[in-house]
Amino acid sequence: MADSIVNIVALRKRFGTNEVLKGIDLDVKRGEVIAIIGKSGSGKSTLLRCVNGLEVFQEGSLEVDGQPLKHGDPRAMRALRQHVGMIFQSFNLFPHLSVGRNVMLAPTLVKKHNGPEAEQQARKLLERVGLADKFDAWPDQLSGGQQQRVAIARALAMQPSVMLCDEITSALDPELVGEVLRVVEGLAEEGMTLMMVTHEMNFARKVSDRVVFMHAGRIHEVGPPEQLFGAPQTAELKQFLSALH
Amino acid sequence: MIDFSLWDIFRNLLLAARWTVGLSLVAFAGGGLVALALLLARLAKLRGAERGVSLYVQLFQGTPLLMQLFLAYFGLALFGINVPAWLAAGLALTFYTSAFLAEIWRGCVNSIAKGQWEAADSLALSFSETMRHVIGPQALRIAVAPTVGFLVQVIKGTALASVIGFIELTKAGTMITNATFRPFTVYACVALMYFALCWPISAWSRQLERKLRRG
Amino acid sequence: MVALDFGAVVAEWPLLLRGAAFTLGLTAVAAVLGVGLGVACGWARAWGPPWLRHLVGVYVELIRNTPFIVQLFFVFFGLPSLGVRLTPELASVIAMVINLGAYAAEISRAGIEGTPRGQIEAARSLAFTERQVFLRVVLPPALARVWPAMVSQIVIVMLGSAVCGQIATQELSYYANLIQSRNFRAFESFIVATALYLLLSVVLRQGLNWIGPRWIFGRVPQAGR
Questions:
Q1: List of domains in chain B
Q2: Are residues A10 and A101 part of one domain?
Q3: Are residues A113 and A200 part of one domain?
Q4: What is the residue range of A143's domain?
Q5: What pLDDT is recorded for position A1?
Q6: pTM of the model
Q7: CATH code for position A209
Q8: What letter does residue A40 receive in the DSSP assignment?
Q9: For chain B, what is the mean pLDDT?
Q10: Distance spanning both ends of chain B, measured CA to CA
Q11: pLDDT higher than 90, residue C85
């Protein structure tokens, strides 16, 4: 029986006086693929960023792998982030390091892998995302899709149990989206727990176990993709889906 | 009245210029170290660092360097220590430099995209690892041009040390003027020597900036 | 512990006030003339004929790579050799104007060169003379663009004017020196003077930021509104 890997209970978050998350309850099982959809401003990215502590919440609880988030404790946060990987919309590759070094940096420093070991792992991961020949290339020499795949390899190098994907194809030219989604699909098939904020509805439909629809800081509907896309219950979801066509 | 040739004037000024260079380098190096400490304190979000450093910078940027030199000179004298001019000048210029460099470098670090910090955090890097491997190298590249440019300000600043009696290029100029009664020639030479020191550095800084912008 | 006596210094507040007022006055005159000179030079560097561009370039580089105190001494002590007699005040203003002019030249040049091409083309299409194009269409937004840098430079010149006390110009640092020579409270005098300079720099900055949009370049809408 799959156990809970991310457990969110009654989470509330404010930016100043503006409450952007109004009581979120979500339980993610190990190996599950969750797609989070909704309009801009619904709080999807904020929720995702709470899971690895890039955003701080005021009320409620968030546990990853049974461990509650301790915002004030840098060491606890670093321990958490070794288990939770994140891919960003703007890739955020380190421009002054080659592709290979980008992937190797964190394992070398944080997990204390030695040089050759980290390099071997990096080469394997780059091969897995289809960029085996780009080990010595520089980020600015790569296309957006290639950079994003390097970012995925970089996050995978830490061997996380959960991967957070924050609109990872939104900044890509349309023809480059497919190559990135293929890699993510591969991760899903291998049993990685994924939480993705995405606008790619077809992809969400195909790959996710459950879809979460957020609106104005609340989860309006949750369920398997056929249910949410095929038989939307709430007016907001119906409106959201119709606006896409 | 002793008759000085142009070469005599030049030679004496040149000897004094050594002290200008020396003081500049000391202030620049010392100021750089202090600035680095202040910057790191600010970035590490140590308690009171943001406020304290901000105030420190505003103090040095909002008051005349001349006053800072006087305060160093007379302030230390209060404690009964007979402070030599070079020490007061060195201290004052070091702290003056540290405030400006801290501000310049802060601007450089701020120009680095927030996403770089977030990516490093997400990879579980500690603050010192993030500074050393991710932010530092990028900030360094951006900071070289303006830092080199500020060296020119420091060299010009040493001229004020003459007012508290430190014998560098400007003071030597004053002394030689008093001896030769040829202020036009002497001060023109002094100006040209400062120009010879500063202009190459300014040009170099501009070149560095162009290289940075090109990629 | 050391005994500090600020009372002796604060008692001389009329002198300090006179000095501060003179500093502000010097700065005001130097600012108007210096920015004027700077704008003219900025125009020359951006749009002038090559020989003028080079000439101004030499002037700018010379001033920016030499200390203000040396420029001041050159004007006050050096020029009399050529038969020019200057009072300390006049020498101070001249030196400050020449100094500010060089920096203002670079600052205004940056502003002028940042003018969108379309603005100039539109003005020319409306049959403006070149002079009108520059003064009415190019200059105000250019100044608005670079105003923070210009204000900073004026403040720097104001702080630099402290050196003018060395040639007996009766500004703030001169009086601070005078006071300490009378009551031997050097540290206290200079602390008070420094605090006054700090106050002056805040006031000057606020004042110039207020004056800019109202009297100099008009309100230019922010991008995106």
A1: 6-214 (1.10.3720.10)
A2: no
A3: no
A4: 89-159
A5: 43
A6: 0.86
A7: 3.40.50.300
A8: T
A9: 93
A10: 60
A11: no
* Euclidean distance between CA atoms B155 and B143, whole angstroms: 19
CA distance A227 to chain B (A): 33
* Chain A residues near residue B119 by CB distance under 8 angstroms: 86, 88, 92-94, 151
User: Dihedrals φ, ψ of A33, to 5°?
Assistant: -115, 115
Question: Which of B45, B118, B122 is most worth mutating to test chain A (most A CB atoms within 10 A of its CB)?
Answer: B122
- pLDDT digit of tens for each residue in chain A (245 aa)? 468 999 999 999 999 999 999 999 999 999 999 999 999 889 999 999 999 999 999 999 999 988 889 888 888 888 899 999 999 999 999 988 999 999 999 999 887 888 899 999 999 999 999 999 999 999 999 999 999 999 999 999 999 999 999 999 999 999 999 999 999 999 999 999 999 999 999 999 999 999 999 999 999 999 999 999 999 999 999 999 998 86
C-contacting residues of B 64-83, CB under 8 Å?
64-68, 70-71, 74-75, 77-79
State ipTM.
0.91
β partners of residue A210 = A34
C-alpha–C-alpha distance, residues B102 and B96, integer Å = 10
Domain layout of chain C by residue ranges: 7-216
Chain A closest CA to B58's CA: distance in Å?
28
CB contact under 8 A, B74 and C187: yes
| Distance of alpha carbon B35 from alpha carbon B40, whole angstroms | 9
Q: Which residues of B touch A (CB under 8 A)?
A: 113, 115-116, 118-119, 121-127, 129, 133-134, 137-138, 141
Q: Are residues A72 and A139 in the same domain?
A: no
Please tell me whether residues A19 and A66 are part of one structural domain.
yes
Quick one: tokens of A21?
């998350």
Closest in B63, B66, B191 to C66, CB measured:
B191
C-alpha count within 13 angstroms, C-beta hemisphere, residue C220: 16
- Edge-to-edge strands of the sheet including A218-223? A84-87, A162-166, A193-197, A33-38, A210-215, A218-223
CB C186 within 8 A of CB B74: yes
Q: Nearest to residue A217, comparing CAs of A57, A6, A34, A27?
A: A57
Count of positions (residues) in chain A? 245
pLDDT digit string, tens, across residues C192-222 = 999 999 999 999 999 999 999 888 877 655 4
Residues C157-189 pLDDT 10s: 999 999 999 999 999 999 999 999 998 888 999
Work out the minimum CA distance from A96 to partner chain B, whole angstroms.
Answer: 7
Instruction: For residue A52, give the nearest of B122, B127, B138 by CB distance.
Output: B122
| Contact between residue C33 and residue C97 where contact means Cβ atoms under 8 Å apart | yes
Q: Which CATH number fits domain C7-216: 3.40.30.10, 1.10.3720.10, 3.10.450.50, 2.40.100.10?
A: 1.10.3720.10
Residue A243: is it exposed, middle or buried by C-beta count within 10 angstroms (0-12/13-18/19+)?
exposed
Chain B residue closest in CA terms to A164: B122
Interface check for C64 against chain B (CB to CB < 8 A): the answer is: yes
What chain A residue is nearest to B139 in terms of C-alpha separation? A96
Can you tell me the distance from the alpha carbon of A13 to that of A50, in angstroms, rounded to the nearest whole number?
A: 9
